[in-house]
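QA checklist item 7 of 12: single-chain prediction sanity check.
[x] sequence parsed
[x] length recorded as 164
[x] structure emitted
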Amino acid sequence: MGDKVQKLSGGCQCGAVRYQVTGEVGHPHLCHCRMCQKASGNFFLPLIGAAKSDFEWTRGEPSWFHSSKPVRRGFCGTCGTPLAFDTIGDDHISFTHGSLDDVAAVTPVEQSGVEGRVSFYGHLFELNETQSNRDDLPGGINDVTATNNQHPDHDTDHWEVRGG
């Protein structure tokens, strides 16, 4: 497959669904196809593959949507976070790169579905960069930070879903 990794963990934003990957992961890539754009609500969907025997849902189970006959996509039924791409009958599953607790643990090696890549993709890094202070919200970034309902980026023995 590719990158050797002993253990990776991840999950959705609210913490209702968590997973763990042990063993090897492979084919970390950015998919630009229109289905992946729609499934992620983004310009592309970063995915990483793992053998199903090395992948385990450790808290909760995703909800599934069949985006085509051979493919279903897993997401958290509570917060909507995209989590998985599963080809029916395959012994591998792909999980979303951004749902990893440590996103930097795996580096993408390829871009696929490039026929669907948006025309401005190559210019994204030319945009002005700012840090978020959220002046548009009452209380600004401090209010966001103080009322954060997001699951922490690590496994927890117990987690009560918040903000639902």
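[x] summary fact logged: The helical segments are 34-40, 140-146.
[ ] second reviewer sign-off
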